[in-house]
Write a structure and sequence with these properties.
It contains twelve helices and no strands. By secondary structure, it is an all-alpha fold. The protein has two domains: about 55 residues, Arc Repressor Mutant, subunit A, CATH 1.10.10; about 140 residues, Tetracycline Repressor, domain 2. The relative contact order is 0.06.
């Protein structure tokens, strides 16, 4: 009888210890193991695949492309600057090789951006036209309208000189259709109109001027002074144009 009770007591204690160990294991698993500690906090979801791995993969996938685009933009800008300078030094005759060397890039890079000489000249012309048109609002924000118009005339003169250095290529391209015919006159006249209106409102420029007439006056100055005349003479003639646009300079009745 005593042996049976002793055996029963031993079995009961063993069962209790086993139950306690299982409870401890379960408690450890729930508190610091699979659910809270491993999987969500430090494992697959929070620290592993989703937050860490996916973000790193996205960064690795996207980062190589961004510098490539930035490099391409920089190379294109360098090529256009080099082309402008090369054509100024050798109007109409600067070679593609010389332009690539001046830009500090290989000839292959140049042709990837501009497959033909016409494509390069067209891009240069369009970029310079965009610049001369886009600078007008900034000048009006910084200067009194009449002064802004005079400063803009200088920028327009620079554009006309760049156009002169590539004109033969432009003319041939326009004739064959390999270069799209631009709306240069319309855009220049619209820009002049913007500045004349600002000057009329400020009382520093006449309000009875057709902006198209001003375009023709400026073209007359540029064509008549091309190549042979000095920058000082061009500046004097542009001053006279501006003087004619001031209030009180209209035709006497």
């Amino acid at each position: 009888m005593e042996e049976a009770e002793t055996e029963s007591l031993r079995f009961s204690r063993t069962a209790d210890r086993t139950t306690n160990r299982r409870a401890s294991v379960l408690a450890g698993t729930e508190s610091g193991g699979t659910e809270s500690g491993a999987t969500e906090s430090g494992g697959t979801e929070s620290g592993g695949t989703e937050s860490g791995g996916t973000a790193a993969a996205a960064a690795a996938a996207s980062s190589p492309r961004r510098p490539a685009r930035a490099d391409a933009r920089r190379n294109r800008a360098r090529l256009l600057t080099a082309a402008r300078d090369a054509f100024a030094a050798q109007p109409g005759t600067a070679s593609m090789d010389a332009i690539a060397r001046r830009a500090g890039v290989g000839i292959g890079t140049l042709y990837r951006h501009f497959p033909t000489r016409e494509a390069l000249v067209e891009a240069l012309y369009a970029t310079e036209l965009d610049t001369v048109v886009a600078c007008a609002p900034g000048l009006l924000a910084e200067l009194e309208p009449a002064q802004a118009l005079r400063a803009w005339m200088n920028r327009y003169a620079e554009f006309f000189e760049i156009k002169r250095t590539v004109y033969e290529t432009l003319r041939a391209g326009w004739a064959t259709g390999s270069i799209a015919t631009p709306t240069t006159r319309e855009r220049i006249t619209s820009t002049i109109d913007l500045m004349l209106r600002a000057g009329a409102e400020a009382g520093t420029l006449r309000s009875d001027i057709d902006p198209g007439d001003v375009t023709l006056m400026l073209l007359g100055v540029f064509h008549s002074t091309a190549v042979t005349d000095s920058p000082e003479r061009v500046a004097t003639l542009l001053d006279l144009v501006l003087d004619a646009l001031r209030p009180g300079k209209g035709p006497k009745g």
